[in-house]
Amino acid sequence: MDDTDRKILKELQEDGRASFREISSRIKVSTPTVSSRVQGMTDNGLITGYSVLLNADMLGQTSVATIIEAKPSEIDAVVERIKGEDIVRLIHVLSDSRILCILSFYDQKKYRSFVQSLSRISEIAKMDNSMILRTAKEMPRASLTDESGLHLKCYYCGHPMKDEGVKVKMDGRTHYLCCGVCAKLYKEKYERMKEAARTPAFA
Q: pTM, whole model, 2 decimals?
């Protein structure tokens, strides 16, 4: 990630509705450059989507911070059980075998029902809930500085990539692999999946 990428991301964080033309004018690069950089950062997973930030208090929602304790080996199982719940708006797995969740809801019955469901999850050892009275600051967790770098994982083996690795362009998207071996295996797997998708189920 270079200085141009950082400038584009800062513009998008400040105004997600800005057009590529507007961004290109502000940072003094061409519109196609902005477009291709944004596409690349979307393909590699750095940009995960665009959304509108809403004020939960103005919507009349109640928010609760929940701390869940579990054995280290059971953390993933607990996360899988709760991450699909609409009431759960944020999940952080902490280093001390705890999970921090932010819950937001309108209906107290829904909240009580969710807490009761947590009590039935055998992997949970302890749970503490605290109502959020007010929010002094709320910002996206990712912050951009001049030191910001890009930490990619190989699309095939999942290992962290120490450099740019191997870029493979397929079907208009860039795929990132750590080495030539993973690139070869990934392309083979990708083609098998495409072929399977083209083959009728009852052929």
A: 0.65
End-to-end CA distance of the chain: 46
pLDDT digits (tens, 9 = 90+) for 23-52: 999 999 999 999 999 998 888 888 888 878
Examine residue 56 and state whether it is found in any structural domain, yes or no. no
Closest CA to 99 of 125, 134, 119, 117: 125
Q: How many domains in the chain?
A: 3
The per-residue b/e assignment along 150-185, b for 16 or more CB within 10 angstroms, e otherwise, is eebebbbeeeebeeebbebeeeeeebbbbeeebbee
pLDDT, averaged across the chain: 88
pLDDT at 78: 94
**Distance from C-alpha of 38 to C-alpha of 32, rounded to nearest angstrom:** 10
Range of the domain at 19: 1-48
